[in-house]
Amino acid sequence: xxxxxEIKANERRLLALTSLKGGEFxxxxxxxxxICERYFRYHTYEGKKRKLPAFKPHQDEKLPTSSDKLLFxxxxxxxxxxxxxxGAVYDLSQAKVSSLVKILQRLLDETxxxxxxxxxxxxxxxxxxxxxxxxDTFNHDATERPIERKTDYEAQKxxxxxxxxxxxxxxxxxxxxxxxxxxxxxxxxxxxxDKALLDEEQLTWIVGIKLRQDTGYQGYNPAGVTILQPTKKxxxxxxxxxxxxxxxxxSKERVVIEHAIAGLKRLRILxxxxxxKFYDVRDRMVSIGCALHNLRVxxxxxxxxxxxxxxxx
Length: 313
Description:
Elements: H1 4-7, H2 11-18, H3 22-42, H4 66-79, H5 83-90, H6 94-114, H7 123-131, E1 137-146, H8 153-159, E2 160-161, E3 166-175, E4 181-184, E5 188-189, H9 194-201, E6 210-212, E7 226-228, H10 241-264, H11 279-297
Parallel strand pairs: 1-6, 6-7
Antiparallel strand pairs: 1-3, 2-3, 3-4, 3-5
Helix pairs in contact: 3-4, 3-6, 4-6, 5-6, 6-11
């Protein structure tokens, strides 16, 4: 059975299993522990209300500490293994693993939100992020992730993405120049076009900012915003050398958001086919992945860390 106290000294293994370094894990644990302990003091592993509060773990409890519970969840998100396999590692039944994952991911999402790491989920939240931001140039793009194919034929059509040739769900993401994720949209069906998704969201942008986007957003030009977008090759014609040079420059700068999406998908549950079927669980997983990426971006334990102010608290 994996125990945090036994693997925390092995930095390489901890990073491989959780996507976090030791200092990052400990910083997250400091905020996660009180929320986790408060919940399980009055609830069981199945989420049922206790008759009497539990002020200390039972003698035979499989995950007695908050650090073990956090490790349990992060290894599940990072590896995306079968719940039966995860249960075998921790000596738990598949049903108990399923219940614990649903509970712990809610507690982790609450923790990350209180730490100020979670991205905005609506237009009002995005405006607040942009107003207080030192940058004036931002990037946006959509990301897809595979999901289980539904049994209903009509429902399958909603999720089928012709672009990815798979059944997927999709989210719109906004990042800054340091690769921090500022906004992630609600989860949409895979067939939704990138621009149609943005039109549906009706996001409000700050006047005077610059916004980098790819050619999939042709025609998206919000008022007061300077759009930086590669020139699309005309049908039956070629781009000039100057246009190609400008396109290369824009793509070179816009690659920041591609790196951010790659950071988000360090959790294999957001990269590979997710087997969890409930919409709210799938949607919350994206928010958690973005927040964990933001934790790594701001971490002083990473060589590329652009900002470390959050660690002063």
